[in-house]
Amino acid sequence: MQETLFSLILPTYNPGPDLPVTWGKLQQFLATQTRRWEVLFVCDGCSDGTEAKLRELIATCPYEIRLLCSPKNRGKGHAVRRGLLRARGDYRIFTDVDLAYPLEMVTKLADELERGQDVVIASRAHVDSAIQHAAGMQKYLRQRQRQSALFNLLARTILGIRQRDTQAGLKGFTDRAVRTMLPYVKCQGFGFDCELLVACRYFGIPVRELPAQVIYDSTVSTTRLTSGAAILGELLTIRHRWRRFARVGLDRSILITAADLEAARVYDQRRRERMQRRIQQVQP
What we know:
Elements: E1 5-12, H1 18-31, E2 36-44, H2 50-59, E3 64-70, H3 76-86, E4 91-95, H4 103-114, E5 119-123, E6 130-133, H5 138-159, E7 170-174, H6 175-181, H7 192-203, E8 207-211, E9 213-216, H8 228-248, H9 258-282
Parallel strand pairs: 1-2, 1-4, 2-3, 5-8, 6-9
Antiparallel strand pairs: 4-7, 5-7
């Protein structure tokens, strides 16, 4: 019988000095594993020499580590999607390249997947989560937490998902879940994680949430700050795409056209206007 394979996917964009640290932690992790792992670095248009450095490291590495490269930066969602599709593992986990979520958390997700869960995610909103940070990062983290709380509120309201932490950078899937959902997940940017959770709801796949252990030791993040208009637009696009799936079926709804987007924009504008009128009517 063929040995079960686990895949670890690391979306990578200009990690700079974090790369040697990540590489060292990976070597220690792989050296102590009884499971068989492959690691995929997905370089998303790196311009800081990361690709060349990784090729050099991989050439002398005894473990199964591969490198996928995109010529230009297309967003974390694109990198994760590509990694999930190109991975060969029976179980596939992605996390941030700076390993803010310790590799012990990767093992916990692998345990849950092996026990029969199809989708497992880390949640910083879980009551048992533990957040550690370096000195002097309090202001930065408070800002990120406020932004994260607002984004998750918008995501739950617009998309109807229940998870309170959509953006935690540690999620795991069975090969079956990847093959079922990913052909229909089109978002390439910050909304990718949200669309994964919408797809889980659509296909009736339960999502297991685990408390997160997170270590912040720098303000470098693979997730860039985005304007409110862009956030709202991307979430509305996801909602419209999956409402269309529910209305006419998956096969007829793979692509979303410019006309579809305009119809969604008009619909949501009218909905906001109706809500505003109702608010004015009830005000004294």
